[in-house]
Automatic annotation (TrEMBL):
This is UspA domain-containing protein. Belongs to the universal stress protein A family. Residues 32-132, 150-275 form the UspA domain. Signal peptide: none annotated.
Length: 280
């Protein structure tokens, strides 16, 4: 399996790359080949006065390459120019990546609490499963907030086709997963909440995970989906939330469903977002 590891050479990116525990987790789920991608924005030029971008970039990338190679991954470096999220997404699609990893400082102190634009735009447009690796804020030398990426997963489902696709990610995540919490949120907008028993459906999913030795609990909630998923995160403290990027919504993929966008923007820890299957 191949992964794209996106870096803007910031402290957040450095924390993601240099955390050996996170790299080990990626190795456990079957990642063997890392593609380290850095995108030079179109408005940044090597000759800009007072800043030696080119030299800084070369030194940082070489350091990152050595770190990843020491973790026993094959490494390929891509330095490209353009719009970051478009170039990262394009490389991931070209190489057939199984995962794209991007670091994010997480919640902004501003009231709207948006994540960094590259992570946000990748979340809205990615064709590849996306892992937003949450980095602590307010530190000159930040660290990742949840080191063991897949040890405790919180899987949120609305029983849609794409939620089912996200669940199938356990086929490889299970090699690094010890605990899982399966969450469904009932809302007044559900077509017919009495038609099927969500607890029974979650229990069926739990049985599949328990066959793999994963300790599993189920949790049916009622209310606002994004708010209840985030409340479940606070209660169960997963290392990563696993969610499909589109459920019942009929919006285009470029207009990511509000629930998954809220979860990516406001979660305290890591979020893994699984997009719909690409249609021709």
């Amino acid at each position: 399996m191949r992964a794209v590891l996106a870096t803007d050479l910031s402290a957040a990116s450095e924390a993601t790359i240099e955390n050996e525990t996170c790299l080990a987790c990626l190795g456990r789920i079957g990642i063997e080949e890392m593609h380290l991608v850095t995108v030079i924005p179109s408005n940044v030029h090597a000759g800009m006065p007072g800043i030696d971008f080119e030299n800084r970039r070369k030194k940082a990338i070489e350091t990152y390459r050595r770190v990843i190679e020491r973790a026993e991954f094959d490494v390929e470096v891509h330095v490209v120019r353009g719009t970051p999220h478009r170039r990262i997404r394009g490389i991931a699609e070209t190489i057939g990546a199984s995962l794209t990893v991007v670091g994010s400082r997480g919640k902004s102190p501003l009231e709207n609490r948006v994540i960094g634009s590259t992570a946000r735009n990748l979340a809205r447009t990615t064709e590849t499963p996306l892992l937003v690796n949450r980095i602590e804020r307010g530190s000159e030398e930040p660290d990742v907030l949840r080191q063991h990426l897949f040890r405790r997963l919180l899987y949120a489902t609305d029983f849609s086709e794409n939620a089912d696709r996200a669940f199938e990610s356990f086929s490889y995540l299970r090699h690094a997963t010890q605990e899982a919490t399966l969450v469904h949120v009932e809302t007044p907008k559900d077509p017919d909440p009495t038609e099927d028993d969500p607890e029974r459906r979650l229990a069926e999913l739990a049985e599949r995970l328990e066959e793999w030795g994963i300790e599993t609990r189920v949790d049916v909630r009622r209310g606002d989906p994004s708010g209840e998923i985030l409340a479940a995160e606070s209660e169960f403290e997963p290392t990563t939330i696993l969610v499909g990027s589109r459920g019942h919504s009929r919006l285009r993929r470029l207009l990511l469903g509000s629930v998954s966008e809220e979860v990516v923007a406001r979660a305290d820890g890591n979020v893994m977002l699984v997009p719909p299957t690409r249609t021709a």
